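Box S1 | Example of a co-folding query
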Amino acid sequence: MTDQTLKAYEIARELYAQYGVDTEEAIAKTLQKPISLHCWQGDDVGGFENPGAALTGGIQATGNYPGKARTPDELRLDIAAVLKCLPGETKLSLHASYLDTDTKVDRDAIEPAHFSRWIDWANGLGIGLDFNQTFFSHPLSGEFSLSNRDKGVRDFWVEHAKRCRKIGEAFGKATGKTCVTNLWIHDGSKEVPVDRFSPRQRLIESLDEIFSFETDPKYNKDSIESKLFGIGSEAYVVGSHEFYLGYAMSRNKLYTLDSGHFHPTEVISAKFSSVLMYLPEIMLHVSRPVRWDSDHVVTMDDELMAIMQEIVRGGVVDRVHIGLDYFDASINRIAAWVIGARNARKVLLRAYLEPVELLKQLEVSGDNTSVLALQEELKALPWGSVWDYLCQMQNVPVGRSWLDEVKAYEAEVTSKRV
Ligand code: RNT
Ligand code: ZN
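Box S1 (continued) | Returned holo structure for zinc ion
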């Protein structure tokens, strides 16, 4: 512990204590909460089925920064470099297309064994795994997968989705940490369809078939992710917000709210208190949309703050699974990962450093003047000193020093990938 970090922390601790906030408790809670790191930041959502295959499904990673991971081993090495810079409980979220096998296996034939290297690796690090079915970037992806008119296509994807749920359950068993298996499909169309109803009817039937067997909730929980539009599906997305909220409520599933999947001024932070009235748990995909669902690196913006405040203030941290979801190929990919993941944890700490009870009491007493005044004063409290101390305690780089490590890793490893 450097003297400077400690000194700054001690001052911060006293300042927070004046508001009745216990910084030690805030630190402990911040470190405990798992944040799931998305594997797909490391290779522009490429996966390992077909090197160089096009990314489809109306999503796009823009940029061509050198050094992306080309194999599972390279990706694991990169993720390990990221993890060295992250304090707190971290999970890794895998997509089905990131299987690690010596022979080709199609998506309707995948099994837990095809992910055994990932499981061993995760266990070596003591981290949990989350999982995602992959419906995009495949010859059968087309415009419609689970809602396709063609039963053969639907059956292929239903089989894939079922297998993924079993893989998720195997992840949970092998790691001892519950896996959230998240289902997102790209189904939709560029123009307004004459018949909006039939694809949704077919999607319900496919989902009911996918969820026709139980997985042990101790090991696997299923979540479904909505979206407003994608590239090439601007006019109609089968799995919309209303569709999946209704499905999740009627079938008791988790519901994934992605911060980039709503109208530009619509925010997910405002939705938790409604959705959690009806659903026991939700999954978040923390992203940053800029003008569209652009999946920019998560920065410390107002919405990230609002997301963390909302779950801490509402006392629902345990009911909300936090995962990251963005893909930037225009800057160093490891740095992109670290920036977003540290921001998520940093802002969670800021939320825990709020005197929530005090603010609630003031609100109840009708003193809205103080509520606003205190919230603005809190913004200037030295949370950064608490963050530095937290990092130092966890033996991860303090302040900007993580960047030196990432640059060194770039010089030694990623820049040599040509
Ligand atoms: C796409 C969804 C989805 C993907 C990942 C790769 O709009 O957000 O979560 O980003 O599955
Ligand atoms: Zn998402």
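The beta strands are 35-38, 90-95, 128-132, 179-183, 188-189, 220-225, 236-237, 254-258, 282-286, 320-324. The chain has one domain: 34-351.
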